[in-house]
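Aim 2 progress update. The chain analyzed this quarter is reproduced below.
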Amino acid sequence: MPLISAGFELQNVVLVAWEKALKNVPDSYLSRSYERAADNWNWTDGKAFTADAVNDAFKILVVEDRQRDEAEARNAKRQNKDTYRCHHCQDIGYQPVFTFRMQRWYASQRPCVCEATPIAQRNATPLQEPEYLRGKLDEWVRVVDLEKHGAPTKAFEQFIAGKE
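Predicted structure tokens:
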């Protein structure tokens, strides 16, 4: 239908509500937010689709984008070891280590020596070669235990296979 008058229809309460609800949503997110809200909307209950659903979808998309960016940064660091400040723990603050006790392998976390570890928990020396061996997944195991009891996980089997 053609506009009756520009002033009358632009002051419509529904348009004002949509404008207020979407004023914080940047143009670059508007299409994605609307699609996400429409996909997740319960169309069978008879309620009208609201602008607040689009705003809520925008907030979720922002969190997902931030988490995706952080995950990509972590993965990039894993692929390029030089990007870590601490190469012993990859800036986590703790070194994953396998220990053999009571006829079983146990996985645990050992505090590192770096600034990522709380001061009260820091160790004086990190786990490092030749006493410890680092596996494919940046986990550590004592060489003596590895030779005596075998590999704790498949990530360490390559070290056993090379010695036999």
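Residues 113 and 125 are 6 Å apart (CA to CA). The helical segments are 6-10, 13-22, 27-40, 51-79, 143-149, 157-163. These observations will guide the mutagenesis experiments scheduled for the next reporting period.
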